[in-house]
Design brief:
The protein is α/β, with parallel strands linked by helices. It contains eight helices and twelve strands. A five-stranded parallel beta sheet has the order 2-1-3-4-5, sandwiched between helices. The chain has a four-stranded antiparallel beta sheet with strand order 6-7-8-9, covered by helices on one side. Strands 10-12-11 form a three-stranded antiparallel beta sheet. Strand 8 and strand 9 form a beta hairpin. Helix 7 packs across helix 8. The two termini are 34 Å apart.
Length: 234
């Protein structure tokens, strides 16, 4: 199955390099040069990956990303000359899955695209008829059928919301989630009424899965943004 990738980049030279690289790899590409043009394509067509520049005319990449995340779950790879940590944190916090700083090598781009598409097809069951039943991260394992959560310490009992929060992080291990994004994904409501709701559930979840809840290693705080999954031990 050939993946359809939307490239949103207003620099013609870089755009041409991306198109040639990805088409050589066997992907189908669609080109957009402004934020408005990108949103128009997204409303009309189905894509498996979005490659998004941040500095775009009309509406910038941050706003495109925000709008995409309101209705779509496709992987987003940000390309940007902004290489400061704060820029990466903001992009990941808005829902990007990966961030590549310009200038970049086409080999690295290709490797990241392959990894993102592999995860996308795996978790969304596009490549076969068998959905994953167990997600693991370090010593943690969650069974999506039995709702069992285990670690080296044995089984633990989570509430439905705690389980769904943990499932969200394990399903997207590289993403930074804002409190609003967690609320929308777990509570299935668009507007968060009280950020403390998410904070309380995160705190309770940490007391159950973290060896030291006061120094969490599984669900880590990204100050000013939200939360992310920590690095797996070992």
């Amino acid at each position: 199955m050939s993946s359809n990738i939307l490239i949103v980049e207003d620099d013609l030279e870089i755009h041409g390099l991306l198109v040639n690289c990805l088409r050589t790899e066997g992907y189908h590409t669609t080109s957009a040069y402004t934020g408005e043009e990108a949103m128009s394509f997204i409303k009309q067509m189905s894509f498996q990956l979005l490659i998004l520049d941040l500095m775009l005319p009309e509406i910038d990449g941050y706003e495109v990303l925000r709008r995409v995340r309101e209705t779509h779950n496709i992987p987003v790879l940000i390309l940007s000359a902004k290489g400061q940590e704060v820029d990466k944190i903001i992009g990941l916090g808005l829902g990007a899955d990966d961030y590549l700083t310009k200038p970049f090598g086409l080999g690295e781009l290709s490797a990241r695209v392959k990894a993102m598409l592999r995860r996308y097809f795996y978790f969304n069951n596009h490549s076969n008829n068998h959905s994953p039943t167990v997600l693991t991260h370090g010593e943690l394992a969650i069974d999506l059928h039995t709702y069992e959560v285990t670690s080296l310490a044995g089984k633990m009992t989570l509430t439905a919301k705690e389980f769904d929060i943990l499932k969200l992080f394990l399903s997207y291990p590289t993403r930074v989630f804002t409190k609003s994004q967690i609320f929308q994904a777990v509570w299935k409501e668009q507007t968060i009424s009280d950020e403390n709701t998410v904070m309380v559930h995160i705190r309770r979840l940490r007391t159950k899965i973290e060896p030291d809840p006061s120094n969490p290693t599984y669900i880590q705080t990204v100050w000013g943004i939200g939360y992310k999954l920590g690095e797996a031990a070992g």
